[in-house]
Design goal:
The protein is of the alpha+beta class. The protein contains 27 helices and 20 strands. Its EC number is 3.1.7.2.
């Protein structure tokens, strides 16, 4: 059982006497506060904070973090107010305790929305002081070590939320030793039988392998001694959860996984790492494509190492990791290595990466429309399988595997992403949806007038790209909804013989109160997006008394002009595909805004006489947009006729979007065309051109 004296003895390695005294003072304060409280196991409660402090001592964390570890349950469990802690131990320690306390009572098995909100709180606490999450991870690790006293279902719940949230965070911050122990304990709690079976099989396999491991390690040491390189060589054992995950995800048998022999070589300097790599490649043949240099290009969480896979005697695969002592510390302790090793090089960059990630969380949170959306974006970043690509100036960017040029653009800068129109990958033009590969150089072409396309959401991978696109489209949709709402409300008010100027502020305030909206702009947005009816609100805004009656049948039907460039809140119905020149009506659809149909479309028959749901529309005189039309062309099945059809459409200044041929028989065929035109006159001109082709019998415009 840990004691405060034993902890004090350990702390003399790296803390001053005055700092150790402060940690002891926090311990005695917590011991007094938790007097009489016991854990589920029956032990005095103070054992838990002391164990958490011991875990943090392994990382050489500072005295304030250790004090927070001692006191982390005091506010929640003993009724001592935050102000009392602040008086005793200062603001910094109290803020750490408060941050950890807020995270302690997060239950991820609760409703999805609440789980997401709790995760947002965690992000905020991490952003304020990164040590909060380190104390919380140590707290969770000790709870996992003592799961035995809990009921099986509670054990499984704690294990599941640890694997979903805490273990990935530990990985993201480079805390490998904590992550591995968490995963092992969670695996045992969730699947005790599977864990035991794999443990026994691995133990047996390791017994058979010990001779081979010793032979390989001996050969490696001999070669490095010949090269005068001072190193530590040790076998790298795979962990049970890692083995289980590979068996499950890669459909591999235990024999396949255990056939690979892993070794780690720890050297004194980076120069020795590369010399060691050369010596290993001369000892055994390397497998092409299996070498990774994470020293020159560190992983996102600051991890650095050289990885190579060799073919040993008898075709045995040997995986080797080569790194310095500092890199070994970084690999095991991640951001905590900043405290463990006070050097300002690799560890500082690892800490900087972790802080940058937390700042990115805040940016995602700002752009997310809801907590659930925020968690969705973050989970992408919590499970990274990175690729490394270059900007034209040679800067390296880390992106999740499967990222596209759009993800790259947003990683460079939000404005670059919002205004990108094309990209060059290794100097060759490529689609924006192209999946990027390791080592490619990507150049983004931008235009001031460009804006994000909703279709990008179908292929972007990173949370930053997804949240920024959604955020832009949301604000774009809002401005378009407000503009359309203003036009619809203005038309409805004009139909009652009034103008917007006739509405006084009292009536606006009254209607806003009734509708629970904050501003007139919000009201206009609701009208534009189809959630509220303009005629009803027009009457409500114009009259003081709710019961005042206005004859709806007296409303004039002055049409609203459509330009085709209204954006996301005006859409053209697929059922009748209206084009300029067709008589049209608008159907106000909740959430979609104004959906435009042709007058004789069967889908708006019932709504046509309802002025609250249906809007009389006309086409604006100046329309430059293009519209899609489907044509079915019946023609003779002769050589070269398709080329003539394409030529005729081109001569009519129309554009073919899609063409497909259905063969009816040997003599006649039916061709389906999807073409872009500017209106009915343009369509008529195109059809006339097609009719001049020899063998074209009939042309029909398709309305689905």
């Amino acid at each position: 059982m840990p004691t405060i004296d034993a902890l004090s003895e350990r702390l003399t390695q790296y803390l001053s006497n005055s700092q150790i005294k402060q940690v002891c003072r926090a311990y005695y304060y917590a011991e007094q506060a938790h007097e009489g409280q016991r854990r589920r196991s029956g032990e005095p409660y103070i054992i838990h904070p002391l164990a958490v402090a011991n875990i943090l001592t392994d990382m050489h964390l500072d005295h304030q973090s250790l004090m927070a570890a001692m006191l982390h349950d005091v506010i929640e469990d003993t009724g001592i107010p935050k102000s009392a802690l602040s008086t005793q131990f200062g603001e910094v320690v109290t803020d750490l305790v408060d941050g950890v306390s807020k995270l302690t009572h997060i239950h991820f098995e609760s409703k999805e929305e609440q789980q997401a909100e709790n995760f947002q709180k965690m992000a905020m606490a991490m952003a304020k002081d990164i040590r909060v999450i380190l104390v919380k991870l140590a707290d969770r690790l000790h709870n996992l070590r003592t799961l035995g006293s809990l009921k099986p279902e509670k054990r499984r719940r704690i294990a599941r939320e640890t694997l979903d949230i805490y273990s990935p965070i530990a990985n993201r911050l480079g805390l490998n030793s904590i992550r591995v122990e968490m995963e092992e304990l969670c695996f045992e709690a969730m699947y005790p039988m599977r864990s035991e079976l794999i443990r026994k099989a691995v133990k047996a396999a390791r017994g058979h392998r010990s001779g081979v491991v010793d032979n390989i390690a001996g050969a490696v040491r001999t070669r490095l001694n010949e090269s005068n390189i001072s190193v530590r060589v040790f076998g790298r054992e795979k962990h049970l959860y890692s083995i289980y995950s590979k068996m499950r995800d890669q459909r591999k048998s235990l024999a396949d996984i255990m056939d690979v022999y892993g070794f780690r070589i720890v050297t004194d300097s980076i120069d020795d790492c590369y010399r060691t790599l050369g010596a290993m490649h001369s000892l055994y043949k390397p497998i092409p494509g299996r070498f990774k240099d994470y020293i020159a290009i560190p992983k996102t969480n600051g991890y650095q190492s050289l990885h190579t896979t060799l073919i040993g005697i008898g075709g045995v695969p040997i995986e080797i990791q080569i790194r310095t002592e500092e890199m070994e510390a970084m690999a095991n302790h991640g951001i905590a290595a900043h405290w463990l090793y006070k050097s300002e090089s690799d560890q500082a960059s690892g800490t900087q990466r972790a802080r940058q990630w937390v700042q990115n969380l805040l940016e995602l949170q700002k752009n997310a429309g809801s907590p659930i959306e925020f968690v969705e974006h973050v989970k992408v970043d919590l499970f990274p399988d990175e690729i490394y690509v270059f900007t034209p100036k040679g800067k390296i960017l880390e992106l999740p595997s499967g990222s596209t040029a759009i993800d790259f653009a947003y990683a460079v800068h939000t404005d670059v992403g919002n205004h990108c129109i094309a990209c060059r990958i290794d100097r060759q033009l490529a689609p924006l949806s192209a999946r990027l590969q390791n080592g490619q150089t990507v150049q983004i072409v931008t235009a001031a007038s460009a804006q994000p396309n909703p279709a990008w959401l179908n292929f972007v991978v990173t949370g930053k790209a997804r949240s920024n696109i959604r955020n832009y489209l949301k604000s774009q949709r809002r401005s378009e909804s407000v503009a359309l709402g203003e036009r619809l409300l203005g038309k409805a008010i004009a139909a009652l013989g009034k103008t917007m100027e006739d509405i006084d502020q009292v009536h606006i305030a009254q209607v806003l109160k009734e509708t629970s909206l904050d501003s007139l702009e919000d009201l206009l947005e609701d009208i534009g997006s189809g959630n509220r009816m303009a005629p009803l609100l027009a009457r409500r805004l114009l009259v003081a008394n709710r019961d005042t009656d206005i004859d709806l049948h007296a409303i004039e039907t002055s049409p609203l002009a459509i330009k085709g460039t209204e954006g996301l809140v005006v859409s053209f119905a697929k059922c009748c595909s209206p084009i300029p020149g067709d008589p049209i009506v608008g159907h106000v659809s909740s959430g979609r805004g104004l959906v435009i149909h042709t007058e004789n479309c069967r889908n708006v028959e019932e709504l046509r006489n309802n002025p609250e749901k249906c809007v009389i529309l006309s086409w604006d005189k100046d329309i430059s947009s293009e519209f899609t039309v489907d044509l079915k062309v019946y023609m003779e099945n002769r050589r070269g006729i398709i080329v003539e059809v394409a030529s005729a459409i081109n001569q009519a200044d129309a554009n073919i979007e899609k063409i497909s041929v259905e063969e009816k028989d040997a003599r006649l065929s039916v061709t389906n065309l999807k073409i872009s035109i500017q209106g009915r006159k343009h369509l008529a001109r195109t059809i006339r051109r097609l009719r001049t082709i020899r063998g074209v019998n009939k042309i029909v415009r398709i309305k689905q």
